[in-house]
Protein backbone atom coordinates (compact mmCIF):
# COMPACT_ATOMS: atom_id res chain seq x y z
CA UNK A 1 0.00 0.00 0.00
CA UNK A 2 1.27 3.49 -0.83
CA UNK A 3 3.10 5.38 1.91
CA UNK A 4 3.45 8.66 -0.03
CA UNK A 5 1.59 11.78 1.14
CA UNK A 6 -0.52 11.85 -2.03
CA UNK A 7 -1.88 8.36 -1.41
CA UNK A 8 -2.65 7.86 -5.09
CA UNK A 9 -1.89 4.15 -4.94
CA UNK A 10 -4.24 3.85 -1.97
CA UNK A 11 -6.93 5.72 -3.90
CA UNK A 12 -6.50 3.25 -6.75
CA UNK A 13 -6.90 0.33 -4.34
CA UNK A 14 -10.06 1.86 -2.89
CA UNK A 15 -11.56 2.41 -6.34
CA UNK A 16 -10.42 -1.01 -7.59
CA UNK A 17 -12.54 -2.53 -4.82
CA UNK A 18 -15.39 0.00 -4.76
CA UNK A 19 -16.23 0.25 -8.47
CA UNK A 20 -16.81 -3.49 -9.06
CA UNK A 21 -18.66 -3.66 -5.72
CA UNK A 22 -20.93 -0.86 -6.95
CA UNK A 23 -21.62 -2.80 -10.14
CA UNK A 24 -22.57 -5.91 -8.18
CA UNK A 25 -24.82 -3.89 -5.85
CA UNK A 26 -26.66 -2.38 -8.82
CA UNK A 27 -26.95 -5.74 -10.60
CA UNK A 28 -28.80 -7.36 -7.71
CA UNK A 29 -31.92 -5.09 -7.84
CA UNK A 30 -32.20 -5.94 -11.52
CA UNK A 31 -33.75 -9.28 -10.46
CA UNK A 32 -36.81 -7.49 -9.07
CA UNK A 33 -36.92 -5.02 -11.96
CA UNK A 34 -36.81 -7.84 -14.50
CA UNK A 35 -39.53 -9.75 -12.68
CA UNK A 36 -41.65 -6.58 -12.49
CA UNK A 37 -41.34 -5.96 -16.22
CA UNK A 38 -42.23 -9.55 -17.11
CA UNK A 39 -45.03 -10.04 -14.57
CA UNK A 40 -46.50 -6.58 -15.18
CA UNK A 41 -47.82 -7.74 -18.55
CA UNK A 42 -49.75 -10.58 -16.92
CA UNK A 43 -52.11 -8.21 -15.11
CA UNK A 44 -52.51 -5.82 -12.20
CA UNK A 45 -53.29 -8.54 -9.65
CA UNK A 46 -50.16 -10.45 -10.62
CA UNK A 47 -47.99 -7.33 -10.34
CA UNK A 48 -49.49 -6.52 -6.95
CA UNK A 49 -48.79 -10.08 -5.84
CA UNK A 50 -45.17 -9.71 -6.96
CA UNK A 51 -44.89 -6.47 -4.97
CA UNK A 52 -45.98 -8.19 -1.75
CA UNK A 53 -43.87 -11.30 -2.29
CA UNK A 54 -40.74 -9.41 -3.34
CA UNK A 55 -41.08 -7.10 -0.32
CA UNK A 56 -41.01 -10.15 1.97
CA UNK A 57 -38.02 -11.64 0.14
CA UNK A 58 -36.01 -8.40 0.01
CA UNK A 59 -36.67 -7.73 3.71
CA UNK A 60 -35.55 -11.26 4.62
CA UNK A 61 -32.34 -11.01 2.63
CA UNK A 62 -31.64 -7.54 4.06
CA UNK A 63 -31.85 -8.93 7.59
CA UNK A 64 -29.29 -11.61 6.77
CA UNK A 65 -26.85 -9.28 5.00
CA UNK A 66 -24.61 -9.74 8.05
CA UNK A 67 -23.48 -12.95 6.34
CA UNK A 68 -21.57 -10.74 3.92
CA UNK A 69 -20.55 -8.01 6.38
CA UNK A 70 -19.18 -10.25 9.13
CA UNK A 71 -17.39 -12.55 6.68
CA UNK A 72 -15.69 -9.72 4.79
CA UNK A 73 -13.99 -8.25 7.86
CA UNK A 74 -13.02 -11.59 9.39
CA UNK A 75 -11.52 -12.93 6.16
CA UNK A 76 -9.70 -9.65 5.46
CA UNK A 77 -8.09 -9.66 8.92
CA UNK A 78 -6.84 -13.24 8.45
CA UNK A 79 -5.51 -12.37 5.00
CA UNK A 80 -3.76 -9.28 6.36
CA UNK A 81 -2.09 -11.45 8.99
CA UNK A 82 -0.70 -13.64 6.18
CA UNK A 83 -2.97 -16.58 7.04
CA UNK A 84 -4.57 -17.42 3.68
CA UNK A 85 -5.66 -20.86 4.84
CA UNK A 86 -7.37 -19.36 7.86
CA UNK A 87 -9.04 -16.75 5.67
CA UNK A 88 -10.46 -19.38 3.34
CA UNK A 89 -11.54 -21.53 6.28
CA UNK A 90 -13.51 -18.59 7.71
CA UNK A 91 -15.09 -18.02 4.31
CA UNK A 92 -16.20 -21.65 4.16
CA UNK A 93 -17.62 -21.44 7.70
CA UNK A 94 -19.69 -18.45 6.60
CA UNK A 95 -21.01 -20.39 3.61
CA UNK A 96 -21.98 -23.34 5.83
CA UNK A 97 -23.80 -20.96 8.19
CA UNK A 98 -25.64 -19.45 5.22
CA UNK A 99 -26.72 -22.92 4.06
CA UNK A 100 -27.98 -23.78 7.55
CA UNK A 101 -29.97 -20.56 7.92
CA UNK A 102 -31.22 -20.82 4.35
CA UNK A 103 -32.54 -24.32 4.97
CA UNK A 104 -34.52 -23.13 7.99
CA UNK A 105 -35.96 -20.21 6.02
CA UNK A 106 -36.85 -22.53 3.13
CA UNK A 107 -38.94 -24.77 5.38
CA UNK A 108 -40.60 -21.81 7.10
CA UNK A 109 -41.32 -20.11 3.78
CA UNK A 110 -42.84 -23.14 2.08
CA UNK A 111 -45.07 -23.96 5.04
CA UNK A 112 -46.00 -20.41 5.97
CA UNK A 113 -46.32 -18.63 2.60
CA UNK A 114 -50.10 -18.24 2.84
CA UNK A 115 -49.93 -16.92 6.40
CA UNK A 116 -47.21 -14.40 5.49
CA UNK A 117 -49.21 -13.09 2.54
CA UNK A 118 -52.36 -12.83 4.67
CA UNK A 119 -50.38 -10.95 7.33
CA UNK A 120 -49.37 -8.43 4.63
CA UNK A 121 -53.07 -7.73 4.04
CA UNK A 122 -53.35 -9.14 0.53
CA UNK A 123 -56.79 -9.04 -1.09
CA UNK A 124 -58.42 -12.29 -2.34
CA UNK A 125 -57.48 -11.33 -5.91
CA UNK A 126 -53.82 -10.67 -5.10
CA UNK A 127 -53.07 -13.35 -2.48
CA UNK A 128 -52.91 -16.41 -4.81
CA UNK A 129 -50.34 -14.70 -7.03
CA UNK A 130 -48.20 -13.60 -4.09
CA UNK A 131 -48.27 -17.14 -2.66
CA UNK A 132 -47.42 -18.65 -6.06
CA UNK A 133 -44.40 -16.38 -6.47
CA UNK A 134 -43.19 -16.97 -2.92
CA UNK A 135 -43.39 -20.74 -3.14
CA UNK A 136 -41.73 -20.95 -6.55
CA UNK A 137 -38.89 -18.65 -5.52
CA UNK A 138 -38.30 -20.24 -2.10
CA UNK A 139 -35.78 -22.85 -3.39
CA UNK A 140 -33.54 -19.89 -4.15
CA UNK A 141 -33.53 -18.60 -0.55
CA UNK A 142 -30.61 -20.78 0.66
CA UNK A 143 -28.74 -19.81 -2.50
CA UNK A 144 -29.38 -16.11 -1.86
CA UNK A 145 -27.83 -16.40 1.60
CA UNK A 146 -24.90 -18.41 0.22
CA UNK A 147 -24.34 -15.67 -2.34
CA UNK A 148 -24.09 -13.17 0.52
CA UNK A 149 -21.57 -15.27 2.46
CA UNK A 150 -19.46 -16.20 -0.57
CA UNK A 151 -19.46 -12.59 -1.75
CA UNK A 152 -18.30 -11.50 1.71
CA UNK A 153 -15.49 -14.07 1.62
CA UNK A 154 -14.29 -12.90 -1.79
CA UNK A 155 -14.45 -9.24 -0.76
CA UNK A 156 -12.32 -10.11 2.27
CA UNK A 157 -9.87 -11.74 -0.12
CA UNK A 158 -9.76 -8.37 -1.98
CA UNK A 159 -11.76 -9.71 -4.93
CA UNK A 160 -14.83 -7.65 -5.86
CA UNK A 161 -14.63 -8.37 -9.58
CA UNK A 162 -15.77 -12.00 -9.40
CA UNK A 163 -19.04 -11.13 -7.58
CA UNK A 164 -19.66 -8.44 -10.22
CA UNK A 165 -19.25 -10.88 -13.11
CA UNK A 166 -21.46 -13.46 -11.44
CA UNK A 167 -24.15 -10.85 -10.63
CA UNK A 168 -24.26 -9.60 -14.22
CA UNK A 169 -24.48 -13.12 -15.67
CA UNK A 170 -27.12 -13.99 -13.08
CA UNK A 171 -29.25 -10.97 -14.03
CA UNK A 172 -29.04 -11.87 -17.71
CA UNK A 173 -29.90 -15.50 -16.98
CA UNK A 174 -32.84 -14.41 -14.84
CA UNK A 175 -34.22 -12.26 -17.66
CA UNK A 176 -34.00 -15.06 -20.21
CA UNK A 177 -35.38 -17.68 -17.81
CA UNK A 178 -38.24 -15.47 -16.65
CA UNK A 179 -39.48 -14.80 -20.19
CA UNK A 180 -39.08 -18.46 -21.16
CA UNK A 181 -40.94 -19.84 -18.13
CA UNK A 182 -43.65 -17.19 -17.88
CA UNK A 183 -44.55 -16.96 -21.56
CA UNK A 184 -42.83 -19.91 -23.23
CA UNK A 185 -44.01 -22.57 -20.77
CA UNK A 186 -47.09 -20.57 -19.68
CA UNK A 187 -46.22 -20.88 -15.99
CA UNK A 188 -47.46 -17.39 -15.12
CA UNK A 189 -46.08 -15.59 -12.07
CA UNK A 190 -44.75 -18.87 -10.65
CA UNK A 191 -42.41 -19.07 -13.65
CA UNK A 192 -40.92 -15.71 -12.75
CA UNK A 193 -40.25 -16.86 -9.19
CA UNK A 194 -38.69 -20.12 -10.38
CA UNK A 195 -36.45 -18.26 -12.84
CA UNK A 196 -35.18 -16.06 -10.01
CA UNK A 197 -34.54 -19.12 -7.83
CA UNK A 198 -32.61 -20.88 -10.61
CA UNK A 199 -30.54 -17.77 -11.28
CA UNK A 200 -29.68 -17.45 -7.58
CA UNK A 201 -28.73 -21.12 -7.39
CA UNK A 202 -26.46 -20.69 -10.40
CA UNK A 203 -24.82 -17.64 -8.82
CA UNK A 204 -24.29 -19.49 -5.54
CA UNK A 205 -22.67 -22.45 -7.29
CA UNK A 206 -20.33 -20.17 -9.26
CA UNK A 207 -19.21 -18.16 -6.23
CA UNK A 208 -18.80 -21.21 -3.98
CA UNK A 209 -16.76 -22.92 -6.68
CA UNK A 210 -14.27 -20.01 -6.64
CA UNK A 211 -13.94 -20.19 -2.84
CA UNK A 212 -13.70 -24.00 -2.84
CA UNK A 213 -11.08 -23.95 -5.59
CA UNK A 214 -8.93 -21.61 -3.50
CA UNK A 215 -9.43 -23.80 -0.44
CA UNK A 216 -8.45 -27.00 -2.22
CA UNK A 217 -5.34 -25.36 -3.69
CA UNK A 218 -4.23 -24.60 -0.13
CA UNK A 219 -5.37 -27.93 1.35
CA UNK A 220 -8.10 -26.34 3.48
CA UNK A 221 -10.74 -28.77 4.70
CA UNK A 222 -14.18 -28.30 3.14
CA UNK A 223 -16.00 -29.98 6.02
CA UNK A 224 -18.22 -27.83 8.24
CA UNK A 225 -16.50 -26.83 11.48
CA UNK A 226 -19.00 -26.37 14.30
CA UNK A 227 -16.73 -23.96 16.16
CA UNK A 228 -16.18 -21.82 13.06
CA UNK A 229 -19.88 -21.75 12.20
CA UNK A 230 -20.80 -20.71 15.75
CA UNK A 231 -18.09 -18.05 15.69
CA UNK A 232 -19.57 -16.62 12.49
CA UNK A 233 -23.03 -16.66 14.05
CA UNK A 234 -21.80 -14.83 17.17
CA UNK A 235 -20.06 -12.21 15.03
CA UNK A 236 -23.17 -11.78 12.90
CA UNK A 237 -25.72 -11.37 15.70
CA UNK A 238 -24.76 -7.77 16.60
CA UNK A 239 -24.83 -6.84 12.91
CA UNK A 240 -28.30 -8.37 12.65
CA UNK A 241 -29.41 -6.13 15.52
CA UNK A 242 -27.81 -3.13 13.79
CA UNK A 243 -29.69 -3.96 10.58
CA UNK A 244 -32.95 -4.33 12.50
CA UNK A 245 -32.60 -0.82 13.92
CA UNK A 246 -32.10 0.52 10.39
CA UNK A 247 -35.13 -1.35 9.03
CA UNK A 248 -37.27 -0.08 11.92
CA UNK A 249 -36.23 3.50 11.12
CA UNK A 250 -37.14 3.00 7.45
CA UNK A 251 -40.50 1.41 8.24
CA UNK A 252 -41.42 4.16 10.70
CA UNK A 253 -40.48 6.76 8.10
CA UNK A 254 -42.86 5.13 5.61
CA UNK A 255 -45.58 5.04 8.27
CA UNK A 256 -45.07 8.75 8.90
CA UNK A 257 -45.28 9.47 5.16
CA UNK A 258 -48.54 7.51 5.09
CA UNK A 259 -49.94 9.64 7.93
CA UNK A 260 -49.04 12.82 6.03
CA UNK A 261 -51.39 11.93 3.19
CA UNK A 262 -51.59 10.35 -0.26
CA UNK A 263 -49.46 12.95 -2.07
CA UNK A 264 -46.54 12.85 0.41
CA UNK A 265 -46.67 9.04 0.43
CA UNK A 266 -46.52 8.81 -3.36
CA UNK A 267 -43.73 11.40 -3.50
CA UNK A 268 -41.86 9.60 -0.72
CA UNK A 269 -41.67 6.49 -2.90
CA UNK A 270 -39.94 8.50 -5.63
CA UNK A 271 -37.51 10.20 -3.26
CA UNK A 272 -36.76 6.95 -1.47
CA UNK A 273 -36.03 5.19 -4.76
CA UNK A 274 -33.49 7.84 -5.76
CA UNK A 275 -32.00 7.75 -2.24
CA UNK A 276 -31.56 4.00 -2.56
CA UNK A 277 -29.67 4.34 -5.84
CA UNK A 278 -27.35 7.01 -4.38
CA UNK A 279 -26.77 4.79 -1.34
CA UNK A 280 -25.26 2.10 -3.60
CA UNK A 281 -22.28 4.35 -4.34
CA UNK A 282 -21.72 5.02 -0.65
CA UNK A 283 -22.18 1.34 0.21
CA UNK A 284 -19.54 0.42 -2.38
CA UNK A 285 -17.05 2.65 -0.57
CA UNK A 286 -18.06 1.00 2.71
CA UNK A 287 -17.24 -2.39 1.19
CA UNK A 288 -13.81 -1.13 0.13
CA UNK A 289 -13.26 0.24 3.64
CA UNK A 290 -14.23 -3.11 5.17
CA UNK A 291 -11.76 -5.06 3.08
CA UNK A 292 -8.84 -2.65 3.43
CA UNK A 293 -9.33 -1.90 7.13
CA UNK A 294 -9.61 -5.60 7.92
CA UNK A 295 -6.47 -6.33 5.91
CA UNK A 296 -4.54 -3.51 7.60
CA UNK A 297 -5.58 -4.59 11.09
CA UNK A 298 -4.66 -8.20 10.34
CA UNK A 299 -1.23 -6.97 9.22
CA UNK A 300 -1.00 -4.91 12.47
CA UNK A 301 -0.44 -1.74 10.45
CA UNK A 302 -2.46 1.00 12.22
CA UNK A 303 -0.91 3.79 10.15
CA UNK A 304 -2.24 2.27 6.96
CA UNK A 305 -5.63 1.74 8.58
CA UNK A 306 -5.81 5.42 9.55
CA UNK A 307 -4.93 6.41 5.98
CA UNK A 308 -7.62 4.09 4.63
CA UNK A 309 -10.21 5.70 6.93
CA UNK A 310 -9.22 9.23 5.90
CA UNK A 311 -9.17 8.45 2.17
CA UNK A 312 -12.47 6.55 2.24
CA UNK A 313 -14.14 9.40 4.15
CA UNK A 314 -12.75 11.83 1.61
CA UNK A 315 -14.07 9.77 -1.29
CA UNK A 316 -17.40 9.35 0.49
CA UNK A 317 -17.80 13.08 1.05
CA UNK A 318 -16.88 13.82 -2.58
CA UNK A 319 -19.28 11.15 -3.84
CA UNK A 320 -22.05 12.46 -1.58
CA UNK A 321 -21.50 16.05 -2.69
CA UNK A 322 -21.30 15.14 -6.39
CA UNK A 323 -24.33 12.88 -6.39
CA UNK A 324 -26.20 15.35 -4.20
CA UNK A 325 -25.59 18.20 -6.62
CA UNK A 326 -26.86 16.08 -9.53
CA UNK A 327 -29.96 14.93 -7.65
CA UNK A 328 -30.84 18.41 -6.39
CA UNK A 329 -30.24 19.99 -9.77
CA UNK A 330 -32.10 17.42 -11.85
CA UNK A 331 -34.94 16.69 -9.45
CA UNK A 332 -37.45 18.70 -11.44
CA UNK A 333 -36.58 16.69 -14.55
CA UNK A 334 -36.57 13.31 -12.79
CA UNK A 335 -40.00 13.40 -11.16
CA UNK A 336 -42.10 13.46 -14.39
CA UNK A 337 -40.56 10.07 -15.24
CA UNK A 338 -42.36 8.58 -12.21
CA UNK A 339 -45.72 10.35 -12.18
CA UNK A 340 -47.96 12.70 -14.18
CA UNK A 341 -49.56 14.18 -11.02
CA UNK A 342 -48.25 17.78 -10.68
CA UNK A 343 -48.69 17.78 -6.88
CA UNK A 344 -46.64 14.61 -6.48
CA UNK A 345 -44.04 15.94 -8.92
CA UNK A 346 -43.70 19.16 -6.90
CA UNK A 347 -43.43 17.35 -3.55
CA UNK A 348 -40.93 14.79 -4.85
CA UNK A 349 -38.77 17.47 -6.48
CA UNK A 350 -38.53 19.36 -3.19
CA UNK A 351 -37.69 16.10 -1.41
CA UNK A 352 -34.90 15.44 -3.92
CA UNK A 353 -33.44 18.88 -3.22
CA UNK A 354 -33.39 18.00 0.49
CA UNK A 355 -31.56 14.70 0.01
CA UNK A 356 -29.21 16.33 -2.51
CA UNK A 357 -28.13 18.88 0.08
CA UNK A 358 -27.85 16.33 2.92
CA UNK A 359 -26.25 13.42 1.04
CA UNK A 360 -22.66 14.38 2.05
CA UNK A 361 -23.71 13.88 5.70
CA UNK A 362 -25.01 10.40 4.84
CA UNK A 363 -21.65 9.41 3.35
CA UNK A 364 -20.02 9.38 6.79
CA UNK A 365 -22.18 6.73 8.49
CA UNK A 366 -21.97 4.51 5.41
CA UNK A 367 -18.17 4.65 5.25
CA UNK A 368 -17.68 4.46 9.03
CA UNK A 369 -20.03 1.48 9.24
CA UNK A 370 -17.69 -0.23 6.77
CA UNK A 371 -14.64 0.76 8.80
CA UNK A 372 -16.01 -0.66 12.05
CA UNK A 373 -17.31 -3.81 10.32
CA UNK A 374 -13.83 -4.35 8.91
CA UNK A 375 -12.56 -4.25 12.49
CA UNK A 376 -15.20 -6.72 13.67
CA UNK A 377 -16.69 -4.08 15.97
CA UNK A 378 -20.24 -5.33 15.51
CA UNK A 379 -21.23 -5.00 19.17
CA UNK A 380 -20.60 -1.25 19.09
CA UNK A 381 -22.50 -0.92 15.81
CA UNK A 382 -25.50 -2.64 17.42
CA UNK A 383 -25.45 -0.15 20.31
CA UNK A 384 -24.86 2.77 17.95
CA UNK A 385 -27.81 1.68 15.82
CA UNK A 386 -30.08 1.63 18.86
CA UNK A 387 -28.84 5.05 20.03
CA UNK A 388 -29.30 6.61 16.57
CA UNK A 389 -32.82 5.19 16.37
CA UNK A 390 -33.65 6.60 19.81
CA UNK A 391 -32.36 10.02 18.70
CA UNK A 392 -34.44 9.83 15.52
CA UNK A 393 -37.75 8.93 17.13
CA UNK A 394 -38.45 12.39 18.70
CA UNK A 395 -37.76 14.05 15.34
CA UNK A 396 -40.06 11.64 13.57
CA UNK A 397 -42.77 12.13 16.19
CA UNK A 398 -42.52 15.90 15.75
CA UNK A 399 -43.04 15.54 12.00
CA UNK A 400 -45.92 13.13 12.58
CA UNK A 401 -47.69 15.53 14.97
CA UNK A 402 -46.88 19.01 13.69
CA UNK A 403 -45.80 18.81 10.03
CA UNK A 404 -48.43 19.91 7.50
CA UNK A 405 -49.56 17.65 4.69
CA UNK A 406 -48.47 18.05 1.09
CA UNK A 407 -45.01 18.96 -0.15
CA UNK A 408 -43.91 20.79 3.00
CA UNK A 409 -44.67 17.76 5.16
CA UNK A 410 -42.49 15.58 2.93
CA UNK A 411 -39.68 18.14 3.13
CA UNK A 412 -39.71 18.01 6.93
CA UNK A 413 -39.83 14.21 6.87
CA UNK A 414 -36.69 13.98 4.74
CA UNK A 415 -34.93 16.69 6.73
CA UNK A 416 -35.62 14.47 9.74
CA UNK A 417 -34.40 11.25 8.09
CA UNK A 418 -31.55 12.37 5.78
CA UNK A 419 -30.46 15.08 8.19
CA UNK A 420 -31.36 14.08 11.74
CA UNK A 421 -31.14 10.28 11.57
CA UNK A 422 -28.07 10.19 9.33
CA UNK A 423 -26.35 12.81 11.48
CA UNK A 424 -27.06 10.68 14.56
CA UNK A 425 -25.53 7.65 12.83
CA UNK A 426 -22.56 9.72 11.69
CA UNK A 427 -21.89 11.04 15.19
CA UNK A 428 -22.15 7.67 16.93
CA UNK A 429 -19.79 5.97 14.46
CA UNK A 430 -17.36 8.91 14.27
CA UNK A 431 -16.98 9.03 18.05
CA UNK A 432 -15.89 5.39 17.93
CA UNK A 433 -13.67 5.70 14.85
CA UNK A 434 -11.74 8.72 16.18
CA UNK A 435 -10.44 6.62 19.09
CA UNK A 436 -8.24 3.55 18.98
CA UNK A 437 -10.22 0.90 20.86
CA UNK A 438 -11.79 -0.51 17.67
CA UNK A 439 -8.36 -1.02 16.12
CA UNK A 440 -7.21 -3.01 19.14
CA UNK A 441 -10.30 -5.24 18.81
CA UNK A 442 -9.69 -5.77 15.12
CA UNK A 443 -6.05 -6.66 15.61
CA UNK A 444 -6.81 -9.27 18.30
Descriptive notes:
With 444 residues, the protein is mainly alpha-helical. It is built from 16 helices and no strands. It folds into 2 domains: 7-224, no CATH class; 235-444, no CATH class.
Task: Sum this structure up briefly.
The chain is mostly helical. It is built from 16 helices and no strands.
- Count of strand segments: 0
The overall number of domains is 2
- End-to-end distance: 22 Å
> Order of SSEs, N→C?
HHHHHHHHHHHHHHHH
Shape: globular
Task: Give the helix/strand class.
Answer: mainly alpha
Number of helices: 16
What percentage of the residues does DSSP assign to strands (E)? Answer: under 5%
The biggest sheet amounts to: none
Keywords for this entry:
single chain, 444 residues, mainly alpha, 2 domains, 16 helices, 86% helix, 0% strand
Amino acid sequence: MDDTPTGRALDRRILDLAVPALGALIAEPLFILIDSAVVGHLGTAQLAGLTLASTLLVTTVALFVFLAYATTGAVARKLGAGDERGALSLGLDGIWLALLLGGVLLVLGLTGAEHLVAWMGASPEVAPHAVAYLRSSMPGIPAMLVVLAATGALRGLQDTKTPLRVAVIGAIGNAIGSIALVYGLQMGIAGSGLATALAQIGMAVALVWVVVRGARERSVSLRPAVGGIMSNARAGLPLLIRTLTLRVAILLTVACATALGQVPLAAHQIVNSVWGLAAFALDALAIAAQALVGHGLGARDPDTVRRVVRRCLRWGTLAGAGLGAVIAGLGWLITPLFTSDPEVQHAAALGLVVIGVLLPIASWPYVLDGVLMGAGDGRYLAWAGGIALAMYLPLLLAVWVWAPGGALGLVWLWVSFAGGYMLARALTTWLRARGGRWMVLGAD
